[in-house]
Amino acid sequence: MSHTTTPITPTPITKNPVAKAAKKKADQYNDPTHNYLRYWDERKYEHAAEEIAITKLLRGKHFKNAVDIGGGYGRLCLFLEKYADKVTLAEPSQQQLDIAKDFLKGHSEIDQKLMQADDLEFKDGTIDLLTMIRVMHHLPDPSTEFNEISRVLSQDGYAIIEVANYLHMRNRLKHLSRREKMPVKPVDIRSAKNKRDEEIAFVNHNPHTVIRHLEHAGLQVEATLSVSNLRSTRLKKALPQSVMLGIERALQKPLASLYFGPSIFFLVRKSR
Ligand SMILES: C[S@@+](CC[C@H](N)C(=O)[O-])C[C@H]1O[C@@H](n2cnc3c(N)ncnc32)[C@H](O)[C@@H]1O
Question: For atom 13 of ligand 1, which residue has the closest CA?
Fold first, then answer.
């Protein structure tokens, strides 16, 4: 899939108030009142939709070293085991790693490391599969993180980067009805209270801007999928999961060029 390539100069992090929040130590998932593992109880469709996307993007490839950046408690690490000899869960929250100890019990080959995306403790060019799923919404300016990904990725390696998509169809219809242009910069979607309390950054991105940030870091998008296209409480109640997933499987690729869904998966490689 081809994309326009207008060069960008990333916004300096210190001049962007939302980005400033992201530069803090990324330990926001240490909140003892929030159990991220339980969050997934009601999200079987979304979880399966993400596994379908990874399967489509990797198409049976096999890797030596896979790393899941911001992998939480390791939700997707078990799935990544199919694709790599060694999987590392790289996660900045100690609480998530503590949950991971239990969740990944019996999978001693999955390494667990306390690590943040803007400071990856891997040598240059040593990772041949890197995933970063559901982390971008905490990264208003991902320039440093993308530079790190580019640095650690091997020349023939692949990264799967998931983007919380502001251009999804519902937003586009909303903006159209108000005759407003779609924003190019990340949109802060925190509640007024969370903004006041300077809570953890929470943004949705314009995928075109993300592509330009990737290019600036020496990374190029090789394939795109639109994911969780049927994410709707009503639909989830009305349709059996097998039907939802059949439709999801069929639509991820055709809807990608429209950036239809709330979640966009990019398959990324080093620029050649
Ligand atoms: C919504 S959770 C997603 C966890 C996991 N990727 C998944 O999909 O199940 C967001 C994760 O991103 C991690 N995170 C937040 N900021 C980060 C950063 N700057 N670098 C790496 N991980 C980060 C959080 O600690 C948390 O585990």
Answer: 70
